[in-house]
Amino acid sequence: MEVSVALRAIEPEDIDILYQWENDMELWVVSDTQKPFSRHQLKQYIQGINLDIYQSKELRLMIETEEDKPVVVGMIDLFDFDPYHNRAGVGVMLNKEFEGKGFASQALELFIDYCFNTLGIFQLYSSITSSNTKSIKLFEKLGFEKSGVRKKWRKIGRTYYDELFYQLINE
What we know:
The protein has 171 residues and is of the alpha+beta class. It has helices spanning 15-22, 28-31, 39-49, 53-56, 103-117, 133-141, and strands spanning 5-9, 59-65, 72-82, 87-94, 123-129, 145-156, 159-169. The chain has a single domain, classed as Gcn5-related N-acetyltransferase (GNAT) (Aminopeptidase, 3-Layer(aba) Sandwich), CATH 3.40.630.30. The longest helix is centred in the middle third of the chain and has 15 residues, at 103-117. The N and C termini lie far apart (34 Å).
């Protein structure tokens, strides 16, 4: 039986898992993070994240399974929301133990529907390092098209990688 996912707002009770994810140095490569976060910083973030999207310019939702006892499997972000041009960036992060089970695909599909049909966003985009084949496959599967390349844009360790720019336009 396939388990489906739901998206929900961040709750104060999510602080432990956010603390774990935000301080996982392996994830810093895709999040542009360069220093750890304290619990105090994350508490303040949680208090502010539920502001109106027009104020915060972002929306972060938790991805959880739809079971009797839901399990948080990851999160999905809308960032750099530009209400004038009606576009925003999108990113998905799954806990490693839940990768490859279709959760990211389901969550991104739900999120696209919400962004286009509820928020009225015209365009979503994502910048993906050329070495991140899982994300490339995910975004292409859901209709994002590669529209640009930034050569040697991201440094991971001592190596520079191209960054691919993907777009999905709400036609």
